[in-house]
Design brief:
Elements lengths: L2 H15 L30 E3 L13 H15 L3 H10 L7 H11 E6 L8 E8 L1 E5 L8 E4 L6 E3 L13 E6 L2 E3 L4 H5 L8 E5 L2 H10 L2 E5 L4 E10 L7 H7 L10 H10 L4 H5 L6 E6 L21 E3 L10 E7 L6 E10 L10 E7 L1 H9 L1 E11 L10
Parallel strand pairs: 3-16, 4-10, 13-15
Antiparallel strand pairs: 1-2, 2-17, 3-17, 4-9, 5-9, 6-7, 7-8, 10-11, 11-12, 13-16, 14-15, 14-17
Helix pairs in contact: 2-3
Length: 398
């Protein structure tokens, strides 16, 4: 460890443990990153731009104590990475009840980088998701006629990142036919066949809620026959891209884009029972689940980072651009309103519809109220990624 790194670590621990009565000296400015000229006609797009915490809208007003448990959870994974070892180790000495100590920690160890889309835009779509509760049974019968499936044995997942590093966050899925790997069946193909017979995990009483459970990625099922509530967590996916059924209804002229909320789509299902399967099959993606014991109802489901999500402090991001686990300051508005929503979040999950640098899915938590907010959330927002000061700057261009 260099003298500079050792000095910073020792100083930070001393300051933070001492209840942050002094402010550490300002760190020297990072040298300007020079992007070499490119020979293509199109100039590279800047994805990250260093800024200051004072430039973050609402940073001073956010109650960082609410974000602290989520950050410590991220550190369970990030501490294994060289650039994050020191910040995560120092974090264990920070007074979790001190707003001042937590704020000083982030401002001492991180540089905020504003995130931009590849077209240069500084804002993007912010949606919401939650953990729903379904009614079900382990055996089919009565109202319980819709299955949730385990991942089938013939589903192959192919990781090409060792050969193509640019595909690090992407997986190819398919099945083997002879000596060729072909795409796995679509939702419609599986629905119209018995391909998943015998792979039923549990049976639920509502095909529409089962569909939306797949969109959320995980949920809970209250089992009528077993007298218990279990968590059904994401296990795998059939490899087909997610397609919005809300967009399908808009394209068909069934509703306007402004009307396309989860609540409106569910109302459409009720009013059009004969076309229910048509709409479900408009999304070829299909999610498979695995059962998990619900040991602590207050803890959220595990996200793609492998740690439990924290309600209103965890987001899903596109890992091609935003590394999993990092703190992200999000500036958006409340679902369906102009009321500001500006707070520090942790990038702890991914999603099939979450594509682009400035794109986030806000985890609202468990239950009906969380579902109402998630279903209405379709806001514009800006994002700033917090990057360790002593690490090399993030890749600034695509």
């Amino acid at each position: 460890m260099s003298v500079i790194r050792t000095s910073l670590l020792a100083s930070a621990i001393a300051v933070l443990v001492a209840a942050c009565t002094t402010v550490p000296p300002e760190q020297p400015a990072k040298p300007q990153v020079t992007v070499p000229p490119v020979k293509s006609a199109e100039a590279p797009k800047e994805l990250f731009r260093a800024t200051t915490f004072s430039a973050l809208p609402g940073w001073e007003k956010d109650n960082l104590r609410e974000a602290w448990p989520a950050f410590l959870t991220s550190c369970e994974v990030l501490v294994k990475k060289p650039d994050w070892k020191e910040p995560c180790q120092v974090a264990t000495a920070v007074d979790a009840g001190s707003e001042k100590a937590i704020r000083l920690f982030f401002e001492s160890f991180f540089v905020p980088y504003q995130v931009f889309n590849q077209d240069g835009a500084d804002s993007g779509l912010v949606t919401g998701y939650y953990e729903p509760l379904l009614r079900g049974a382990r055996k089919r019968g009565g109202a319980f006629q819709t299955p949730l499936h385990r991942a089938p044995e013939d589903l192959l997942t192919i990781d090409l990142s060792s050969v193509y590093p640019e595909l690090k966050s992407m997986r190819l899925r398919g099945r083997l036919v002879g000596n060729k790997v072909v795409p796995y069946s679509t939702r419609a193909e599986m629905t119209n066949s018995n391909a998943l017979s015998g792979k039923e995990l549990v049976w639920v009483d509502d095909p529409v809620e089962a569909f939306f459970l797949q969109v959320q990625g995980s949920g809970r099922v209250q089992l009528a026959d077993a007298k218990e509530t279990i968590r059904v967590a994401y296990a795998d996916q059939n490899g087909h891209p997610y397609k919005s059924i809300g967009r399908y209804l808009v394209d068909k002229g069934e509703m306007t884009l402004d009307q396309a909320s989860a609540q409106s789509i569910k109302a459409w299902f009720v009013a059009n029972p004969a076309r229910q399967q048509e709409l479900l099959n408009a999304n070829p993606s299909y999610v498979f689940f695995k059962e998990e014991k619900l040991t602590d109802p207050n803890r959220g489901p595990k996200g793609a980072l492998g740690v439990p999500l924290t309600p209103q402090r965890s987001i899903a991001v596109d890992p091609q651009f935003i590394p999993l686990g990092v703190p992200v300051f999000l500036a958006t508005t409340q679902p369906g309103k102009d009321v500001l929503l500006q707070r520090l979040m942790m990038a702890q999950d991914t999603g099939g519809a979450i594509r682009n640098p400035v794109r986030a899915d806000f985890f609202w938590g468990f239950g009906t109220e969380a579902g109402e907010k998630a279903g209405k959330m379709k806001q514009r927002g800006q994002m700033w990624m917090l990057h360790p000061k002593l690490a090399s700057p993030p890749v600034l261009v695509r």
